[in-house]
Structures are given as structure tokens and as C-alpha cells.
Amino acid sequence: LWAISRADEREAIERAVIDAARRALDDTIFRHCATTRVGAAGPDLRVETGDMLAATFLHRTSRDADPQLHVHSTIFNLVKTHSDGKFRALHGHPLYAWQKAAGAAFRSHLAHLMRTRLDVEMERHGPEGQYTRVAAMDPDLEREWSKRTADIVATVTEHLGEEALSDPAQMAAATLATRRRKAEGVTTEEDIARFREEAAEIVDIEEQRQRIRETPVAEIGQEFIDAAHEEIAAIPAKLARMDAVFRQPDIVEKVENALAGAVSGDAVERWHELSLAGADLVPLEYKEPNADAQAGMAHKRIFTTRDTLLAEHTLTRLSQLSVADRAHAVPEEKIDAKLQALRDKGRQYSDEQVRAIHHAAACPGRLALIEGAAGAGKSHVLHPLADLWRAEGKFVRALAVPWRQAMELATAMTAPPSAIDPFLREVRKGAKTVGADTVLVVDEAGMLSTRQTLQLVQLSETTGCKLVLVGDTQQQQPIEAGPGMRIVRDAVGSVRIDRIRRQKATLEDWLREVDGLSPEEAIETAAAMTREERDAARERFTEMNRQRRKAGKRRISIKRPWQLGLSALLRNGAMHQAFRELHRRGRLGLAEGKEEALHDLVARWTAYTAENPGHSTIVMARTRADVRALSALLRAHHHAALARRAAARGKADEIQSTVIRVHRIDERGKAVEANLEVRLGERLRIGTPVIDLQLYTGDVVTVTGIEQRRGMDGAPQCRLTVRTADKRTISFAPEEIRTYVGEILLDHGYATTATSAQGITVDAAFLLLDQGMARESTYPACTRHTLHLEAVADRQSVAVGIAGATPDGDPGREVSDDEILASLGQLCGRSQPKEAAMDHLLAEKRLEMELEGEIEIGREPVPQARAANDGLGPGTAGTGPQDPAGARGAAARRHADRAASLRIVAAADRRTNRSADRATAVALAADMEEIEREWNAIAAPAEPAADPEAVGEVRRTLDRHRNVLNRVRVFLRSRRRGSEDGRHHPRVSGLGYDAFQGLRRNMQRRWAGALEADDARLAAEAEKRARSRSRSQALEADWTELRARAGQEPLAFLDDPEHAGLLRRTGAFRFDPEIDRDTARSWRSFLDGHYAAIGAELNRAWRKPGPQGSWGPGARVTPARLAEYRRLLRRAEAFWSALDRSAVVPGDHRVE
Q: Does residue 1034 fall inside a structural domain?
């Protein structure tokens, strides 16, 4: 509009743009961000307000010289404080929180000024109506003058596909990559003339201007006010769908978008006040407020909705109620018998896993939670659990948020699978029945939102079924609002499995622990090996274990595989250190640009699959756009390989292909209709479950046949024959893979998102590392493998941020790899877990809330007050009897908001408190009876020095006794009325507590002598372990020094005169009765591995042909050959002597 207007109109439009920018700065940045921080870091740090300074610069053209009015706002890094008038540095964090809200305010103010000053009608557009534009502008002219946008779109489309256009991060990267230097100078009359010439080729300028003038400006009537009120009232619920806790800038942004410039600045302020005083909005407080929150800064004001708060509270209370149900407990003896039967079959379970099995099967309550690290074997414990429940007559179902994980779980448990949401829908419809004899097992439960978890717990409450949640709250977070699994865990507790088992030892580990190389030497040696050398080394280590098995000995096991250490670093958030470990091994590549990163990752996958064709692999990325780009590259490689094989067979012309019409999921999760080419050998991903075909969401199938024909109406039809991962052959038409709304969800399946890969285990994983990944997505994505992990990152996008953040702000300076890894580790190590509203509501105190008369906060009563804006409509805020702008009005509103939030919780408590207290008392009484039975089962000590096992059982019973006592005491003290007299249960009363405490004291006196004797025994054992540890450390130091002298040659040990003596000392230490069993076992394993390695090398040296032939009869004898022979013979004799001196049977380590 500016480019085709007259000079006076252009000036008026420019003035409107500048005024809108400055008004937006006043309403957001200047109002909420003009602060500085004073004092030392910690409790003395405080926030002070002041005056800030900004400069606005109007630019009239884009970098492609198209007309484009825009304003650059430069914020100066200084604040003049109100308290003392000093100039201090600006506190920058609030700027980032208010950035999007400031943009929305600018668009709204500009739209209003265009309507009121220039009489130009504006209309909303965008996916959520968040933008405004001139209503009657010709779309062809808009496209003509959007060359910069077209350039960015073309770049993204060419390299990443159309779906990436909806990804802000990808668009931002493309904007930077295609950025050109702007032309010098100001916009001249010649530029205006050029604009008019370009416009005249597309539209009639006068006719276009006339059409804009004649478009009437919409009047703001009651209909608009009602619609705006409805949209603004729905803002909290809309925000709460994805996040249980949101902030004031989020609300302000949505309000500005909803108004879209229809009202003036003052009216906008009133709408903001009304949106923040909405009946459904509940203010919260931080658990540990920082200086910004303590100062009451707006970007730290957090909110939730009543529905969210009620859902979380109901989930907590129902979870607590489930504890009293003992109908699903499996007897301990049956669990022990099942585990022993599995051990007899060769299946081993660690102590952690056994504890988890007992917790899920034997512990009372309808809810059981098993948490653990990625690769710790959580799913491994579910097979015996399913067998135990089925033996008790239960029906087991396998559930997960996505279908793919449900199928994995169903395979492990031999149970029918289902995704969570479809299962809950079918239960509501009556298509699936759930009863008291049902056990629902949910895998990857850390991905459950509050809504999903509440529905599952409500189902358990109404039907009596048992619910078992298995997952990790530190991995992939729920898509919707609220950490459902964590809320349940905080209510009923869980059992953890933390020892990681998924990753296996690599060649580097064998070189380090068996051949005795240092970590650096092992890394370098493994990296320098050719494929043939790696195969030979693996065969050598395999042969060593094979020989040990023949001799009836334990196999050599690697104690500390480096990949397990890497997984531990990722779990603990040490991303920088983990990335450095990958980079030094060549497993993390840093590419120059996104395109090179994509090609590098595909090249790494190609090289690995060529060397290991039988291994399972997965290729992952964060966004769907990156997945689409990777799939295209992998697909091209896949079909090129198929074409080469077909050409070798002389069937290059017989490759079939077809194009089908499908719906592909874009970056926003929307199904977009598109064409999909399908060839023989194609890998397709199923996007929706088809129960009749036993195909589920996420399944990847391979096309083995394409049948094309015409239907009865003459229309072309296609039918695909595919092979599934479990070797089934299925034939279907694409139309059969259809959702209930008619979308055909099929796509190429060569790569997947990191979220979809949750719960999958493969031999090798390949990850496109993205700085947009948080800790909760980076950690599980980097632990999907058992043998091999490789990742590639785009260093350019990270380097620009590092270089631009320096004091001189030089984006072109060289950035080292260490800086890239450090920055990437910091970005990917950011923890972004889902928040729960109750975390903040209960932060200040554990409140006891009642609804009669007044609401108590601690001991200070707060009278119930109505909200300051109750009953006031738009445009009247602040004019009531309690003006929110005044001090009394603001205080009243805060009290009213607090009272409203407490009222919600109190109402929920009143409905469930009585039954919850009774259930808790019943459970406590049962625990007290169980402790008494345990004391009756323990015989009195016959003498002070009792059996250590019996004393250990006494200690454990005393601990459990103390724990139950504490719980009873807390229960009695937390209920002010009606608990001491045992109204909830006769045993759970003041008298019952005293008697139970007296029982514990009697048992302590009875076992006092045995406990003292056992304490002395434990102290002696601790001292013995300390001596063993000291001697063991001295031996380790000697062996480290010996390895350093020997270097990389395995047989160099035999040339060192101290080797035999050190072996003799080590053998004597191993058999010393003064050392503990674990230390002796560790040194025995070391000696066995050492002897095996040297013996294998000697055998190889004798067999290996020398430069002049073998050692057999008739071998040519030369002086050099004779010297080599004597050297080998001397080493063999030294080895035999070492075996003899170290008290090891020579036959155990034969030398041919």
C-alpha cells in the first residue's frame, strides 16, 4: 500500500508504523523490562526499576529491494534506576520473555492506526489469525513484492521440502543463510517510480487504491465485543491444553492477536486486565522464586486454570486412594518360584529388577510404578510379571502412548496391544471391557499427560483393575499438558532400575581391558584398524572366550564399557562431556551447514550398513522436516542400490513404480494431501492402525509387489503387496490405510523423529543432532543403540550464535570445535520437563484448607473476597468500588485470586478427604499387623553372637517398624480432629501408636547384645575391606607402571624382569584370606584375562609365518631368523615360569 500511495499518504503510513512500534515498546518492553539487578548473586540479589532508552529506525525496502516498511528497535544496555539515579546495565532476560508479545502488540496497534487514521480496513490471517493485512490488496502484487520471502521459501523447499516451511527454526536458519547485504543509501524518488512501474504491470494502480478506499472499515459493535470476549475467555483453556503452567506474556500475546487492532490502546489495557482477572484463571507461585519473581516482574507471573488444577488434584487423591486395595497382590512365594524357574532356564535378573518385580506384583494397591534409566531393562521385568498375573487369573493388556511402543510391549508380554487414546475411546464406547481381573501395563509412561493419566486412574478406580506404569520422567515429555506419571509417583511412590545394560562392549573396550592399552591408545588403535583387522580382533577375543568355555571357566567380561559411561553422562545432563567423548572417537561429526550435515549422516549410515548388513539401524532427527529430508536421501541411496542389483541380473527395465494419493503429516501435525511415489523395494511407514491387517501406527513395511488395474468405473486402482518386520506378507489398497476422518496416512519410512523412536532398541543409531533438542529428547535419542551410535550436527548455526555473542559481536570469526561442542552441550542439556500446576500451588506451605467460614493459609485467616472485576464488562475495568489500579483494589484482587485457587482445592478435598483418610488408616493398620507378624516369625537370640543373617533381618524389620511409626505419627498429627480416638481405624489411634512404639523398644532391648556383636563384626569387615583396598590400589599402580613400560606390544611384558615378581605378588594377594571376596574375584578375573591374552599372542606368534617362512621342519635358517626364534623361545619360557611362580595350573593356559 505504501509503494502505490501518494507522497502525503506514504508519510501518513510511515508515521503510523513508527507510532505503532513505539506504542508497542511502551506497552511491553518499557513497562515490564526496564529493570536492572543489584547486589551479589544469591539472596542479596535484587531487582530495581528505572528508565530505559531505545532508538527506532524506519526502513522502507527489503534486502531484495522490494517495498517493505519495517522498524528496527535498538535497546540500549543501560537503565537509570529510580532509587539513586545511577546508570546500570539492563537486565536482559525479560526482553526474551516479552519479545513475541511485543510483536503482537505492534501488529495490533498498527492495524488500529490504519483503520482510524487512514480509514483502511485490515483483516486477520495466519493459522491462528495472529497476523493482519490490508483487506483489499491484490494477492498477485503481494507475491511480486515478496521476493525475499520467495527466496527463503525456495531455499527451504529445495533442501528440506515444503513441510519445513512451517518450522520456525528451519525458516530462521534459511533467513540467515540467504541473507544478503542491504543496499546503501535511503529510498529515493527513483525507487518510488520503479515500484509504481512494477505495480502497473500487475494491477491498475488507481483502481487498486480506489478498491482499498471503498472497502468499508468494520464497525466495532456488540457482535464483535461478544466474539472477542468469547475468544479471550477461551485463551487460558487453549494455553492449558499444551502446558499446565503459562505466563503473563503468553496471555498478552493471545489477547493482542484476538483484538487485531479493533480497539484503542486504553481499551486494550482494559481487555488485558479482564483476561488476567478471568474466572477460570488461577495465579500460582514459584517453588523457589528468584530475584525476578520476588520483585513481582510480569514475565514471572504464572497461571493455570481451574480445570487443570482440579484434574491434577483429583489424580493425586485417586492415586492415594488406590493404596488400600489389596486384591491384586501376588504371594511372595509364587514370585520367588517364578524367578527361580526363569533362572534355571538361563534368564538372569539383577537385584534391582527382582525388587521391581516384587514391587509390581506383591505390593498392595491398584497402582504400581517402575522407573528407570534408558536401557536399564525396565521392559525385561514385564515378561515374568505378565506370567504371574496370568497365573492368578488376570487378563493383561499392553498399552503405550504411540502404537509402536505398544506393539513392542505386547511382543515382550504376549498380551493384546493398544495405544492409550484409542483404548480409552473404545472403553467409553463399550467396545472393550475392563474389570477387576484386568491388569493394564503402560510402557513409556513418562509420555503420559495429566489428562491421559487421570482417565487411566479413574478407570482403575471405577473398575478395580490394576494399573502398572513403566517409564522414565527424565525422557521424552508428554505432548499435552502435565507430567502425569510424575504426579502419580509423588502420590504413591515408585521403584527404580538405574543400572544401564543396553549398550554392549566394543572393540575399544576389549583393547583397553584385555590387551591392557590405555584409553587413548585403545581409541587410536580401534580407529586405525581396517575392516579386516577389526574382524580379526573380534575373532581373537571370541576365540579366547571359546577356549575358556571349553576349559570350564567363566568368560572374560568387560567391566566398564565406554558406551555405558556415555549413557550415564547423558542421563545426568553432562551433554558437553558426552559430546566430547563421541567427537574424539569420530562418532560426532560437525558439518558446514544443514545440507552437508544431512549428507554426512547418510554417508555414515551407508558405510556402517555396508560393513554390517545384518544389523538393525535407525536414523533419527528432531523435526518432521529433517526426517523428510533424510528419508529422501536415504531413499535415493536405497533405490540406487536396488537398481544396481537389478542391472547385474539384467532386469533394470523391470523395476515397477506407481504414484498414489495420500495424506502426509506436516510440521504442525496436520495431514496434507500429496502425491507419493512407490517403487518395488520401497519402505513405507503406516500412519494409522488397521486392526484387520494387524498393521499399527509406526510400522515400517517393504513393498514386494505393485498391482495396477482399472476398476469397474474405469478409474485406475493400485494394490500393494508388502512384507512386515515379522516376515508376514500382506496385500492392501492404499485406501485401506485410512483414518476415521478419511485420511490415507502412508509415507516413506527411511527415517523417524526422535520422539517416535522412544522405546526402540536397535544395533546402531544415527542422529541428526539439533540445537533445538532439550535434555529430555537428546538423552533417549542417544541411547537407542546397543553397539554403535553416530551423530552429526550443523556447526554453522551454532557458530553464528557463539561468534555473535562475543563482546565485539563478530559473526565471522573462527569458532573452534571445542566451542561448538560446549555450546551444543549447553543447548541440548537444557532441561524442559513438563510442569504441574500443583507444584506451584503447594510451594509456599502444605496447607490445610477448609471451606466453612474462611480459608486458612497456615495460621493466618484470609477472608473470602470477590474478584475486583466481578460483574464488570469490557470497557469498565477499574471503575468499580475496588479499583484494581489502587493499592487496596490490587490487594483485594490478590486475596480474591488466592481464595479462588484454594476454594478449588478445598472443594476437591471435601469430596475425597473422608474416604481417603479411611483408606490411609486401613493401609497403616495392615502395615502395623504385618510388622507384628514379622517379629513373631523371628526367634529370640540364643546367645549374643547371633547368626548374621538373623541380625540383618532384625535390622531391616526395625527400619520398617520405624518407617511405619513415622507414617502413623504424621497421619495422627495432620488430622486435627477425630484421629486420636481411632475413628478411622481402631489400631490407628493414640493408644495404638504408643503400643506399637513400645513393641519396637522391647525388640531393641531384646536384640541389643546381638546388634552390638554384629556392629563389631561389620566394623572389622569394613577395616578388612579398607586394608584390601589399600593393597589393591598399590598393585594397580604397579601394573599401570608396567603397562606404560611395555607400550602397545602385548608380549613386551615378558621382557620386563619385574613382570614375574608382580605376577607372584598378585597371585599371592588373590589367595590371601585377609582380602574380601569381591576384591579376590576382581583380581582373579584380571589374571585370567592377562594370561589368556599373552597365551593367545604367543600362539599367534608361533603360527604366524615370518619374513622367511614358517617355523616348521625345513624352514630356512638365517641369523636374523635364529634371533627371532630365540626371542620367542625366551618369551615362552618366561611365560611358563610366570605361570609356575604365580601358583596357576599350567594346563589352564596352554602354549602350543
A: yes
Q: How far apart are CA 951 and CA 645, in angstroms?
A: 71
Give the whole-angstrom CA distance, residue 1123 versus residue 1142.
28
Q: How many domains does the chain have?
A: 5
- The shares of helix, strand and coil residues in the chain, as percent rounded to the nearest 5, are 55, 15, 30
- Residue 46 CA to its chain's centroid (Å): 34
The answer to whether residues 1074 and 1133 belong to one domain is: yes
Query: Do residue 551 and residue 580 come from a single domain?
Result: no
In a domain, 931, yes or no: no
Residue 487 and residue 550 share a domain = no
The three grid cell numbers given for residue 1113, joined into one nine-digit string: 621342519
Three-class DSSP labels, 495-516: EEECCCCCCCCCHHHHHHHCCC
Please check the confidence at residue 1108 and state whether its pLDDT lies above 50: no
All three cell numbers of 1134, joined, read 618366561
Domain end, chosen from 770, 796, 829, is at 829
30 and 143 fall within a common domain: yes
In whole angstroms, give the CA distance from residue 15 to residue 191: 19
Question: pLDDT-derived band of residue 846, with 50, 70 and 90 as boundaries?
Answer: very low
- Say yes or no: 198 and 266 in one domain: yes
| Strands 466-471 and 367-372, sheet pairing | parallel
Domain that holds residue 268: 2-300
Set of cell numbers at residue 566: 556415555
**483, 480, 424, 477: which is closest to 455 by C-alpha?**
424
Contact (Cβ atoms closer than 8 angstroms) between residue 785 and residue 506: no
- Residues 662 and 727 reside in one and the same domain: yes
Quote the radius of gyration of the chain (alpha carbons, Å): 36
DSSP strand E in 612-699: where? 617-621, 657-665, 671-679, 683-686
Residues 152 and 66 sit within 8 Å (Cβ to Cβ): no
C-alpha cell at 814: 573462527
Task: Quote the cell numbers at residue 440.
Answer: 493394564
In this predicted model, what pLDDT tens digit does every residue of 398-427 receive, in sequence order? 898 887 778 878 877 788 888 888 888 888
Q: For the chain, first and last CA: distance in Å?
A: 93
Sheet arrangement for strand 729-732 = 729-732, 716-723, 700-710, 683-686, 746-748
Q: Give the domain-ending residue among 468, 497, 526.
A: 497
Its pTM stands at: 0.63
DSSP state of 30: I
- pLDDT tens for each residue of 591-625: 888 888 888 998 998 888 888 888 888 899 988 88
Q: Are residues 620 and 714 in the same domain?
A: yes
pLDDT category of residue 461 using cuts at 50, 70 and 90: confident
Residue 262 has which C-alpha cell? 479493533
Inter-residue long-range contacts of 957-961, CB under 8 Å, 24+ positions, other chains counted: 957/931, 957/1003, 958/1000, 958/1003, 958/1004, 960/931, 960/934, 961/931, 961/996, 961/999, 961/1000, 961/1003
Does the residue 920 lie in any domain?
no
CA distance 783 to 764: 10
Element (H, E) at 911: helix 887-937
Does the pLDDT value for residue 733 go beyond 80? yes
Asked whether residue 950 is domain-assigned, the answer is: no
Judgement on whether residues 724 and 669 belong to the same structural domain of the protein? yes
CA atoms within 13 A on the CB side of 373: 22
Cβ–Cβ under 8 Å, residues 1132 and 1151: yes
The rounded distance, in Å, linking the Cα atoms of 348 and 362 is 20
C-alpha distances out from residue 983 to 324, 696, 927, 996, Å = 17, 53, 18, 18
